[in-house]
Amino acid sequence: MWRDYNWDSEDENKVELVVKDCNWNVLSNWDTVMATKDLKVKGGADIKRWDKFKNIRLTDNTEEIESGKMVLRTEFFKKI
Asked: Which parts of the sequence belong to the Protein YjdM C-terminal domain (predicted)?
């Protein structure tokens, strides 16, 4: 007895997270973002307005991105 296998059925179960910056632009891995305001960082140098962060990585949380060892909130950054 043969069974028909639908190869697309696995793709339908996947959920794709959409990460957006402060201006609702869609972010993806390896994008460059810029700070929109001064931010204080615990245990490190402060982030100044217009500081750039290159090659960001997305996380499981849609409100956070990673740049190096820092986890950044998307509400304070815009895509360049």
From this structure: 19-79
**Inter-residue contact 38 to 46 (CB < 8 Å):** yes
| The dihedral formed by the CA atoms of 16, 21, 26 and 28, expressed in degrees to the nearest 10 | -70
**Dihedral, CA atoms, 31, 37, 38, 43, nearest 10 degrees?**
-40
Q: How many independent structural domains does the chain possess?
A: 1
- Name the helix (H) or strand (E) containing 9: helix 9-12
Q: In this predicted structure, what is the pLDDT of residue 38? A: 97
pTM above 0.90, yes or no: no
Q: Name the β-bridge partners of 47.
A: 39
